[in-house]
Amino acid sequence: MKTLTLFIALLLPFAASAIETKVMVRAKARDAKFIGSSLGGAYIIIRNKANQRILAEGKTTGTPGNTQLIMKNPVARGTAICDDQTAGFLATIDIDEPTFVNIEVIAPFNQKQAQTIVSTELWLLPGKNVLGDGIILEIPGFIVDILRPRTHQFISLKTVKDKPFQFQANIVMMCGCVIDKGGLWNSDEMEVKGVLKKDGKVIREVKFSLVSANLFEGDCPITQTGNYELVLHAWHEKTGNAGVDKMNFVLYE
User: Fold this and answer.
1) What is the pTM of this model?
2) Coil, strand or helix: which one is 184?
3) What DSSP line would sit under 65-103, residue for residue?
4) Are 198 and 175 in a shared domain?
């Protein structure tokens, strides 16, 4: 028994122990900036690929980042595009051996109609921190919110039949960055168009135009009662960014 105890005691110094390992994860909108506190953040989940155990999870916090660094300066190899305020999630993971992980980003977390899940996989080594810009996952698309009409709004036909029916939507980049005429994210380069359905059948297209920063409007005549649905999309050909929202409303006598 004493021999066994001595043998175990001799082995203990060589037994593996968990080492704290830090990983910075960020969510960056395609052709734009980072998803952070102002938009409710992106939700990050880091799992051990072998057993799917969650090693860390949480939201990105911080600012969308420095516009000059991210969008304007030429980026050479090794050049950082993030500063100390740029949104991210710093995970602290205890591992005792090289661990293959899956990193999943759900973003933007508070915008369900625009929410995208993006993931990557990589090896983490004990004590080898991944910091600085860290792991950056790209989030494609636009956040599209139809503002008018409201969801399942009942509207009297007599209030609209003698004038164009007004539609309104708010559209921003996936990081919340501003879309404006002639701006860095230029509305002139975007197609914003709605397809109007009545009782399940397409009846017309509605073209939307920018009226102020992020705010788009369109109109068309509506002369009949029924159940209507507007399917609105935003599209940017240069980047492939697209976003969609849908809205149902009712016209009655």
Assistant:
1) 0.90
2) coil
3) --HIIIIIS---TT-----TTB-BEEEEEEESS-EEEEE
4) yes
Task: Report the candidate in 135, 174, 167, 125 with the shortest Cα–Cα distance to residue 150.
Answer: 167
Cβ(100)–Cβ(122) below 8 Å: yes
CB-CB neighbours of 30 under 10 Å:
17
CA distance 111 to 113: 6
**Cα 83 from Cα 106, distance rounded (Å):** 22
Does the pLDDT at position 109 exceed 90?
Answer: yes
In a domain, 151, yes or no: yes
- Dist CA 194 CA 8 (whole Å): 72
Q: What is the pLDDT of residue 162?
A: 87
Number of domains comprising the chain: 2
pLDDT in tens, 66-106: 999 999 999 899 999 999 999 999 999 999 999 999 999 99
